[in-house]
Structure formats: structure tokens, C-alpha cells
Specification:
This is Late embryogenesis abundant protein. With 132 residues, the chain is mainly alpha-helical. It is 62% helix and 3% strand.
Amino acid sequence: MKASKMDILNEKSSKGKMQAVKEKLSDMATMRKVKSDAKAEEQAEKDLAKTRIEVAKEIRKAKEAEAGMDLHVAKAGEIVQKHIEKHPDDLVNAAGAVGIPSSNENSPGSIGSTNPIGSTSPISAPTSNNLL
């Protein structure tokens, strides 16, 4: 039996259609993978951005807390200085009092602590800007 030209053309056409369908399916699978990868990358970038925002907030809170502590230390120094000015004869170092010299350490009216070298350093707010 001899195949007619029409049968041969139909067979070639059928093979060509099958190949086109296979290519289309392959292209669709590739596109799904690319979209999936892009979506995963986008989510990772969003997560990183959220983390950076959280870190920035915590740094801001730490700076605010440090500034508040500095303010309280400065206020405490002012209160001690005012007390010393009002009561120069009352320089006995009370238990737990920080920065008030006993009568045998420093001259009346000075506030601070004596370091090992012997100089007096006044009470002041810490000036540290290091947060991390």
C-alpha cells in the first residue's frame, strides 16, 4: 500500500502540531518557574527591608534611652552640687551616695571622685555615642 501525499502531509502536520504543543507546555513551565523565582526573591527583599526597619527603630529607641540616662545623670550632678553649696559642712559620705566625697578626701564644695593618679574629675553626663 502506497501512502498518498495527503496522508504524508497530515502525518507531518500532526507531528508538527505535537511538537508545537510540547514547546508551548515547556515554555509555560519555564514561565511558571521564572515567576516563582521572582516572587521568592521579592519576598526575601521585603523581609530584609522589614528587618532593617526594625533595627532602625531599635537603634532610635536606644539613642532616646541613652539621652534620657544622660539627662538624669546631669540632673543628679546638679542636685548634689546644690546640696553641697547649701550644706558645705555636711560632706560626710552617706552609705550608697555616689560622687559625694568624705570630709578627708577632697576640699569642701568639690564634687567628683579621686582617680588613682589623684586628680578630681567632676560628675558629668556620659558622652558615649557608640550604640553597637
